[in-house]
Amino acid sequence: SGGGFALALASDVRLAGTSARMNAAFIKIGLSACDVGVSYFLPRIVGASIASELMLTGRFINAQRALATGLVSAVVPDDQLEAEGHAAPARAAGGDAQSRAARGTQCAERHETSAGAEAGATG
Fold it and tell me: With a cut of 50, which residues of the chain have pLDDT below it?
């Protein structure tokens, strides 16, 4: 709810556990529901009609409706949410976290080596 909802909207990929509920909460206490970028991101993700409904009423949206509207990319069992949160980026990057870390280290080492060679050539 509220600021956490806004931060989630700013994410590239959003996952939800089956029991997830979210809302634009600030309207419930008499403030604008346009907090922390909600009015920017929400209509772009779910469309103007659903965004208006959520921002003007403060109603909660459950995980299944969030999936149906495109608010989240996947709904997974609650006890698997953290594991899926770690696995999804690894799949997108084409490997597991350990192999990505190794590739990143190798890339950094190559960069340092070539930077050192360039410095030696000019200095």
Answer: none
